[in-house]
Structure formats: structure tokens, C-alpha cells
Design goal:
heterodimer; A: 404 residues; Aspartate Aminotransferase, domain 1; Aspartate Aminotransferase, domain 2; 7-stranded mixed β-sheet; 4-stranded antiparallel β-sheet; 13 strands; 39% helix; B: alpha+beta; Sufe protein. Chain: A; 49% helix; elongated
């Protein structure tokens, strides 16, 4: 076993060597511009792009003409929301999303609000899921789009997308899902799930960074988005810009591998994740799992170790790469808004650790990580005045703290 | 973020971890911060009533590595100082000693607040004792 151990696969994943190998020729030998229609360099590149387009489409049960390549999920989310708002402006001006969405959705919505779009941010239940009745109640005749993520990037919970889509369609709205964390990890099917638009990223599924896709439904209904990048009219006019051929080949290969290996891999992920969870719960008291375990990515565990601050825990397990919802680890010095949205209290957000297992993690690593985390949590609790008070039977919610 | 060697040393080998009996008249206890802010420091001093010298100090901290290091360092500095000397410890001294980056300055402020709160608590206790002695006389 080699240190450090990478267990932050929701942030990014390493490129699978098989993906890397597939990409390599497109940097040097077959470097053509896929838009060059009049020589073999261009044709070879175009063939590679079209093969990848089919590989992406196949993974999500789509038609290859419904795939638009982008620079990643952030761009895909921007294109989906801004593109729909602009294209369907005459139909309505209301978008519904959720409080636990990724910043690429939330900040895009904030921008749209400045431009006169009305946005409803649905709260989530303590299990992290959207309440369908609240969604139903929020729908209006002016609602043009419902955008709810497939799987959450922090707590890994899977939203009931098929039911959400039904509710959106009953009122004539489109359904977009940020499927960045889900595609390649759990079966995503645009037909079964009723998805009209979906955002996809390569680097969360063992593909390269800087490439992604937007699925845009062509039939029942035919969805159109207004381009947000003007230029040569690539990607059927929806996204101009010379195609990132090696990146797109990598995304395609990553999708093909995910499709072939998902049944086995998701079982293995769930086994390792549950082993990690069971070990931590067996050895430590006052440990809380954030978000439902019932509807969750197989590789995600988000857990709060009460009375221990997240950054100090990361410091103690510095040879393990994971992330925390603690304010001290965020650029904004605010604890995770996703965990706050669950209503668990800021103190538990500060104490949270996100484990993101991946294709290359081993059982030996999981054993090492669980033992190390248990050891450091115990050590830090010896240092914690809160744990001492808890042990003395003090109700920490009743204490007059001096907030600063 | 990279931690300074001194922060790492205090984090890995925290000094004077523990608690004194809060009801001991010679013990001053300061508890500052809040769980929802991500840091709580408990700092205690044990004062020799005859000399006014802090004979021992202990801490427990819920917080990041820099908060743990700031309070650990504070207990080291407090031992052997008189109560008035202790009040002269400034958060900037802690920042300099531990090479804390700007985002961690609040940890040092919290440590200074904890020192002040502990000494304040001790002083209040001694005042009470004096008042009750006078009342008896």
C-alpha cells in the first residue's frame, strides 16, 4: 500500500490508464481539427469525435445527436440554464432548483435573477432529498425549467429524478439534471428518468479534466437551448469552439468503460464504503451520517464526528486525501451550505468528512483509513472541551456561547 | 494549506491538555467561542493566591490545528507569569510565534480572549472571597 491515499473521488478522479492510452494519438499523430471537412486529418478527428459521441450517448440511453460537447459540467450547467431561460423567455420566466445544488447551478441562477428570471430554491428534507409536494406547490404556469441534480457532490444522495421529471412535465416545464456525480456511477437513463437536459463531466469518471457534455433531448419534446458561446457554429450551433478532440475521445472511452464495468464496480464500491462506515460506527460514539443511506451513490460516505473540528481531523490524517465541510477548509470560511440545508446544525457541518471512494481504492486502503480516522478522532476528543462537557451530561445546545 | 513547524509540533504534541476543578477558588476558567463557529477554547489557570503567580495552566480546544496550537502555546506562556503579566499577552505575539497566516489570526484572538476570560474568572472569585470575608468581619 502506498501513501498518501486518495479518497476524494467526488472532487476529481485520476484518468484511467486505458482512457489515457485511447487519448494519446489525438495529441500528436491524428491532431486534425474535427471541423476540417476537406482533408483526411479532419475526417479522422471527426470520426473519433463521433465515436465518442456514441459512447457517451450509449451510457445514458440517448441518441448520439443529442450530445453536445462542452468544457465540463460547469459550462454544461451554464448552457442549460441560461440557454433555456433565453430560448423559452416568451413561455415563462420561472426556474425551480434546490438549495443543495452545486455552485455552478446556484450562481448561474443568481445571475439569471439579476436578468429578471424568478428562481425558487427548494429546501431539502433532513435526508437531503427534495420534498415532491413542495416541488408541486412551487410550480406555476410561468415555470419553464426544473433543475435538480441527480446525485449530490457532498452527501451523494440520489434525488427521485423520475418523479421530479413527471411533476415538471405535468405543468409543461422542462427537466434538467446536473448528473455530474451520477453518470458512470449509477445507471442514468434519459428515457426512464424523463430527463430533457443533463450535464456530464469526464473527470469525475476517470476521464480527463476540461471536457464534458450536455445531453439535449431531440424528441418528445424537442428541446432547444440558445448558444452561450458564439463562433463557428459547432455542435449544431449550440456550442461554438474547436472541439477538444483528445479530451472528447477520453470522455467517450471513460463512458464505454463505465458502461461495461458499472455492475461490478458499483458493488465493489458499496462493499468498501459500507466496510468503512461500519468500522467507524462500531468504534466511535456520536457519529452522524449526513444524508440518507437508502438513496445514495455507492462510493460516497459523508459523516460528522461530533465534538471534533473537521480541519483538525484532516490535519491528523494528512496522508489520506478526503475533504471536509468545515468552514476552515472552505474559501468562504463558511461551513458547507449543503450540510446546513439538511438542518443538522453548523456544529455538525464543521465536524464533517466526505469520503469519496474510487475505482483504484483497495480494501487494504479502507482498512488503513478506518483505523487511522478512529485513532485521530479519539485523540482529538481527548482535547475537546465539547466532548468533555458531553460526557459530563451538559446539553451543549443550552450553553450560552460567546459567538465570534 | 501548509502549517508551520511550530503549529504541527503543538498539534502533534499538545502541551498541558486537561482540566482543573472549576470550583477551586484558585482556578480561573475561560471558555470562549461557539460550536457553530467551529472553535471553542477552554483555558484554565491555577494561581498561587499568596504570590499571584500562575503555577499551572491547562486547555482543551475544539477547533482547527491553529486553534489547538494557539491555546497550547498560551498555556506554556502562562505558567510562571503573574496574573498581570498574563494580561499583557497579545494575540499578535501568538501569530508571530506560530507564523499563523492571515486566515488563522482569529485563532490567536480567541486564545487571547480565553486568557482574559480565565483571569477575569479568577479575579471575580477572589473578589467574592474578599467581600464575603469583609461581610463576616
Amino acid at each position: 500500500m502506498k501513501l498518501p491515499i486518495y479518497m476524494d473521488n467526488h472532487a476529481t478522479t485520476p484518468v484511467d490508464p486505458r482512457v489515457f492510452k485511447a487519448m494519446l494519438p489525438y495529441f500528436t499523430d491524428t491532431f486534425g481539427n474535427a471541423a476540417s471537412r476537406n482533408h483526411s486529418f479532419g475526417w479522422v478527428a471527426e470520426d473519433a469525435v463521433e465515436k465518442a459521441r456514441k459512447q457517451v450517448a450509449d451510457l445514458i440511453g440517448a441518441n448520439n445527436k443529442e450530445i453536445v460537447f462542452t468544457s465540463g459540467a460547469t459550462e454544461s450547467n451554464n448552457l442549460a440554464l441560461k440557454g433555456v431561460a433565453e430560448m423559452y423567455a416568451e413561455k415563462g420566466n420561472h426556474i425551480i432548483t434546490a438549495a443543495t445544488e452545486h455552485k455552478a447551478i446556484l450562481d448561474t441562477c443568481k445571475r439569471l435573477e439579476k436578468e429578471g428570471i424568478k428562481v425558487t430554491y427548494l429546501p431539502v428534507e433532513t435526508n437531503g432529498l427534495v420534498d415532491l409536494n413542495k416541488l408541486r406547490a412551487a410550480m406555476t404556469d410561468k415555470t419553464i425549467l426544473v433543475s435538480i441534480m441527480y446525485a449530490n457532490n457532498e452527501i451523494g444522495v440520489l434525488q427521485p429524478v423520475a418523479e421530479i421529471s413527471k411533476i415538471a412535465k405535468e405543468r409543461g416545464a422542462l427537466f434538467h439534471t446536473d448528473a455530474t456525480q451520477a453518470v458512470g456511477k449509477v445507471p442514468v437513463d434519459v428515457t426512464k428518468d424523463g430527463i430533457d437536459i443533463a450535464s456530464i463531466s469526464a473527470h469525475k469518471m476517470y476521464g480527463p479534466k476540461g471536457v464534458g457534455a450536455l445531453y439535449v433531448r431531440r424528441r418528445n419534446p424537442r428541446v432547444q437551448v440558445t448558444a452561450q458561446m458564439d463562433g463557428g457554429g459547432h455542435e449544431r450551433g449550440m456550442r461554438s469552439g474547436t472541439l477538444n478532440v483528445p479530451g472528447i475521445v477520453g470522455l467517450g472511452e471513460a463512458c464505454a468503460l463505465a458502461k461495461a464495468e458499472m455492475p461490478e464496480e458499483s458493488k465493489r464500491m458499496a462493499y468498501l464504503r459500507d466496510k468503512l462506515k461500519d468500522r467507524l460506527l462500531a468504534s466511535l460514539d456520536e457519529v452522524y451520517i449526513n444524508g440518507t443511506m437508502e438513496h445514495r451513490l455507492p462510493n460516497n460516505l459523508n459523516i460528522s464526528f461530533a465534538f471534533v473540528e473537521g480541519e483538525s481531523l484532516l490535519m491528523g490524517i494528512n496522508e489520506i486525501a478526503v475533504s471536509s465541510g468545515s468552514a476552515c477548509t472552505s474559501a468562504t470560511l463558511e461551513p458547507s451550505y449543503v450540510l446546513k440545508a439538511l438542518g443538522a446544525g453548523d456544529d455538525l457541518a464543521h465536524s464533517s468528512i466526505r469520503f469519496g471512494l474510487g475505482r483504484f481504492n483497495t480494501e487494504e486502503e479502507v482498512d488503513y483509513v478506518s483505523a487511522k480516522v478512529i485513532d485521530v478522532v479519539k485523540k482529538l476528543r481527548e482535547l475537546s472541551p465539547l466532548y468533555e462537557m458531553h460526557k459530563e451530561g451538559v446539553d451543549l445546545t443550552k450553553v450560552q456561547w460567546t459567538a465570534h | 494549506m501548509a502549517y508551520s513547524d511550530k503549529v504541527l509540533d503543538h498539534y502533534n504534541n499538545p502541551r498541558n491538555v486537561g482540566s482543573f476543578d472549576k470550583s477551586d477558588p484558585n482556578v480561573g476558567t475561560g471558555m470562549v467561542g461557539a460550536p457553530e463557529c467551529g472553535d471553542v477554547m477552554k483555558l484554565q489557570v491555577k494561581v498561587n493566591p499568596a504570590t499571584g503567580v500562575i503555577e499551572d495552566a491547562k486547555f482543551k480546544t475544539f477547533g482547527c490545528g491553529s486553534a489547538i496550537a494557539s491555546s497550547s502555546l498560551a498555556t506554556e506562556w502562562l505558567r510562571g507569569k503573574t496574573v498581570d503579566e498574563a494580561l499583557a499577552i497579545k494575540n499578535t505575539d501568538i501569530v508571530n510565534e506560530l507564523s499563523l497566516p492571515p486566515v488563522k489570526i482569529h485563532c490567536s484572538v480567541l486564545a487571547e480572549d480565553a486568557i482574559k476570560a480565565a483571569i477575569d474568572d479568577y479575579k471575580k472569585k477572589t473578589e467574592k472571597v474578599e467581600t464575603s470575608v469583609q461581610a463576616q468581619a
